[in-house]
Amino acid sequence: MSVRVAAVDLGATSGRVMSGRISGGAEPRVEINELHRFPNGAVRAGGSLFWDVLGIHRETVAGVRKVAETGPLHGIGIDSWAIDYGLLDRDGVLLGSPYSHRDARTEGVAEKVVAEIGAAELYRTTGLQQLPFNTLYQLVAARGTAALEAADALLLLPDLLGYWLTGVAGAERTNASTTQLYDITTGGWATDLCRRLGLPWSILPPLRDPGSVLGPLLPDVARELGVGADVPVVAVGSHDTASAVVGVPAATDRFAYISSGTWSLVGLELDRPVLTEEARQADFTNELGLDGTVRFLKNVTGLWVLSECLRSWSERRYQDVQLRPLIEAAAEFAPLRSVIDINDPRLLAPSTAADPMPERVAMIAAEAGEPVPASPVAISRCVVDSLAVAYRRHVRTAAELAGHEVDVVHVVGGGSQNELLCQLTADACGLPVLAGPVEAAALGNVVVQGRALGADLPDLAAMRAVVRRSYEVRRHEPRDGLDWAAAEVRATRRAG
């Protein structure tokens, strides 16, 4: 059978709605087409950063309506970034705009929680990397607020959008597992942890597996979309990285992946979590994937740094700076001249006129005794080189910690279009890099919907075979000539 769906894929800087079609036959193929794109970003108000979630909902509905206007619609799936949430009162009404994870309210909270619970116990329970903005820390920062005291339910962003389409509340597991509120060994919410921290665990909604059906559309939503109320909303891998990993066109299990975008998620797909003390010390995270798999990975500050540099330059005297020619010029610049710890926490916050991102990069390099990059080309090369060094370090560390052989690195997402970054990743890792598809998250969204709606895709291998048949990738072979081990030592020394 042929299945046609709407895939809503939301990123921190833009959202898109795709039509996705899986053909029938002995060798099905998948095709996606972008029908609606809209800008996204945190909004500063009252000194805090929020998401315009009602605007995101409006654009989601507009995009799904375009998919419905151009052909049959068999299902809808939504994936987005992780961690952030909305609070609902007992009438199901949103209690204010959701905070962005980049808001400053969580500063210092993680350290207080670790002092109270202990880092080792937190890791044994949740298996997560210590990121200062995890949902757990956001809730601890919100203790005593009127909104949290009035809350009846907490919904992560894709679950909130699905709730507005169906009226059914829940938490899809791939996203729930990123919150540091999920017990990675029991497969349920970490309610004892919540009690010890004085958090209202009763607001955590029922859990559901990726690929399950939330329910049909609400009648008024169906009328607005111009479709029948029996069109289902499917809980895909609602964390965009979970969907992107489904969309990795791997032919074997001996691969590492890099989902490269605003963030870079560097890791492996495993059948069980790695909860050793060595994994905790390396700050690796265990998040859930499709069909009971585990995404053993490291969150790396990604192309966010470069995009914030571009935004800063466009607002100042470098108004003609464009990404493609900048990367082309950076490819001709001296390699590994300056490398920095790309995960330096000072690179997390948005660039501002008073604290621009290019100056932060230069300052971190200066503090480390590196040649200070000054021009846009030098700073861009520093960022890309530093990302490749980080990818090398974390691919190798993941493989060692998990005892997992890696023959190839798949780079998917927007960063797969950056040929300089992909080639440097191959050079740094000493492994072939297969770049693409760009829209891996949307493809993963579509094939999971397809299976839920009856397509013959029994497992991850079948889903990935469909992606391989449908989309070409670029192969980058590793080159010799640069001392990546020494560059890693330089960056590692400053990381620790």
Summarize this, please?
With 496 residues, the chain is α/β, with parallel strands linked by helices. It has helices at residues 53-69, 109-117, 119-126, 135-141, 146-150, 157-166, 173-176, 191-196, 219-225, 240-246, 277-281, 304-315, 323-331, 357-367, 376-402, 419-429, 440-452, 460-470, 484-495, and strands at 3-10, 14-22, 30-39, 43-45, 48-50, 75-79, 85-88, 153-156, 171-172, 182-183, 188-189, 207-208, 212-216, 232-235, 255-260, 263-270, 285-288, 294-301, 408-412, 433-435, 474-476.
What does this structure look like?
By secondary structure, the protein is of the alpha/beta class. Helix 15 (376-402) packs across helix 16. 52% of the residues are buried. Helices cover 39% and strands 20% of the residues. It has two domains: 3-238, Nucleotidyltransferase, domain 5 (2-Layer Sandwich), CATH 3.30.420; 239-436 and 473-496, Nucleotidyltransferase, domain 5, CATH 3.30.420. The protein contains 19 helices and 21 strands. The model has no long low-confidence stretch (mean pLDDT 95).
Descriptors:
Nucleotidyltransferase, domain 5; 19 helices; 496 residues; 6-stranded mixed sheet; alpha/beta
CATH class category name of the largest domain: Alpha Beta
Distance from first to last alpha carbon: 54 Å
Count of discrete alpha- or pi-helical segments spanning 4 or more residues: 19
Helix content: 25-40%
Question: Main sheet, how many strands, which sense, barrel?
Answer: 7 strands, mixed
